[in-house]
Amino acid sequence: MKINHIGYVVKSIDKSVIFYCSNLSYEIKVNNIYVSNQDVYITMLKSIHGGPDLELITPASKTSPAYNALGKGSVINHICYQVKNYDYLLQLFKNKIVRKSM
Predict the structure, then answer these.
(1) How many Cα atoms within 13 Å fall on the side-chain side of residue 63?
(2) DSSP assignment of 31-48, as one string?
(3) Residue 7 is inside which H or E element, if any?
(4) What is the pLDDT of residues 51-60, one digit of tens each?
(5) Mean per-residue pLDDT for 2-8?
(6) Cβ distance 9 to 70 under 8 Å?
(7) Among candidates 20, 98, 100, which has minimal Cα distance to 55?
């Protein structure tokens, strides 16, 4: 099992992209996609040095679940693991939040 990406809720995707790309050797992998079921915009950043990717998440409106995270000062939204035995792990964590990443 390895970390595929870490999701961060941010106030500004544009400012966060500049920070991570300029200072921490990331580059844009997927830019500014709207995810309707979460009412958020996301941008995926790829590590140039092989670390986990970053998913920058910003709420599209005050009704987005991510909006509340910003108000609480929370920035880490999720950690996505890459596994070979997904079905087995899904059974172990069936009462937890586990989603298949595409």
Answers:
(1) 3
(2) EEEEETTTTEEEEEEEET
(3) strand 2-9
(4) 899 999 999 9
(5) 92
(6) yes
(7) 20
